Amino acid sequence: xxxxxxxxxxxxLDDHFGKVGTPKRDAFERDVQEALHAYHIGExxxxxxxxxxxxxxxxxxxxxxxxxxxSRMERGYSISIPTMSRVFKALGITTATLDLGAAGKIxxx
Length: 109
Fold this sequence. Notes:
Blueprint: H1 9-17, H2 23-51, H3 56-63, H4 67-74, H5 81-90, E1 97-99, E2 105-107
Antiparallel strand pairs: 1-2
């Protein structure tokens, strides 16, 4: 019978991307955080669209893009600040700010 060796997820990350603090691991962690933020923005777009009983096609028509582009945004892809602004304004969300911590808050739109 074959014996299985189990390793922690942290060990797999260390083996593949290096220890925390190395350039490769830092880049990986940064990419994960960016993807997570984009996912949350996409989820907010989708939740508000559904709350308003809009289809992806209807929201796309409001901002001049195809359904596929709305789908990509809702899944966390292709989201830039100008695009976010257009989408959220089309959904009736007229203001947004970016909290930069000690540097203060800035209006996005």
